[in-house]
């Protein structure tokens, strides 16, 4: 009998980290999670929770012992502290992966691309980000590619803007709608005619697990684009209306003027304003490579995904079509 595969998830309390834990468990992995604080229901989810800090090299090294995969899903909350935290945390993961002989999995974003790469992003598109946050993202990938040339296997799955039933810091729940209340208006951050890439977090976790199931077919440094849903503002508004069965939800606009006023005093708002360029042009992740590798059955139907996300955000009650999801493996 083959030994059970082992994976460490760093940042397992976050949206992508929690989905990665559950997807890997469904696929038969033994999952260990490195977090500062374990969730209340952790005793029932089949995950081995370890208290530690991704900024402490010894904590990461200890957690990674015996692991075949390290999912690096940790990010500073609310865009804060990227200059001081992001690269040191990644360096700790690289060192731990090298010691354990593990593959690093990085859930990537579109932040490391600039307008010269838009509108269609492939795995080989130029990375010329116009923001400091994007530069850090691009540097993360450079460090991972360098590590892969020295024996550390790497898998990157780049995604659009996340949303999902357990997502916290994301555009849908914190920008387009008001979490915890019935939806009366969608505050869209761009021109309603411009398309944008969205990634449903449970699908991202499932795709990561399916990719890792095919380790033998992966290169030492491998990257894929997760297409998800490509929606303009009208399609996003329509998806929210259909999920809530409320055609009267209004088409509003995100108050960028308010974010600019708050930016001198609020780091989250300041960093948010710097990323506004991502809403001024169409951006679409080309997932042809991913489909060729895994097939076409990758994404949950949009209305179902949106319904679950809105239930999770506290904007609507669970229904038979969109029941609440629980943190179980």
Q: Helices and strands in order, then pairings?
A:
Elements: E1 6-10, H1 15-26, E2 30-35, E3 48-51, H2 57-64, E4 69-72, H3 82-100, E5 103-108, E6 120-121, H4 132-148, E7 154-158, E8 161-163, H5 171-176, E9 185-188, E10 196-200, H6 201-213, E11 221-225, E12 229-231, H7 233-244, E13 250-253, H8 256-262, H9 267-274, E14 284-285, H10 288-294, H11 302-312
Parallel strand pairs: 1-2, 1-4, 2-3, 4-5, 5-7, 6-14, 7-11, 8-10, 9-13
Antiparallel strand pairs: 10-12
Helix pairs in contact: 1-6, 2-3, 3-4, 7-11, 8-9
What tags apply to this protein structure?
Rossmann fold; 14 strands; 329 residues; seven-stranded parallel beta sheet; three-stranded mixed beta sheet; 11 helices; single chain; alpha/beta; 36% helix
Describe the structure.
This protein is an alpha/beta fold. It has a domain of 216 residues: Rossmann fold (3-Layer(aba) Sandwich), CATH 3.40.50. The protein contains eleven helices and 14 strands. Strands 3-2-1-4-5-7-11 form a seven-stranded parallel sheet, with helices on both faces. It has a three-stranded mixed sheet with strand order 8-10-12. Helix 3 links the parallel strand 4 and strand 5. Helix 1 packs across helix 6. It is globular. The two termini are 22 Å apart. The mean pLDDT is 91.
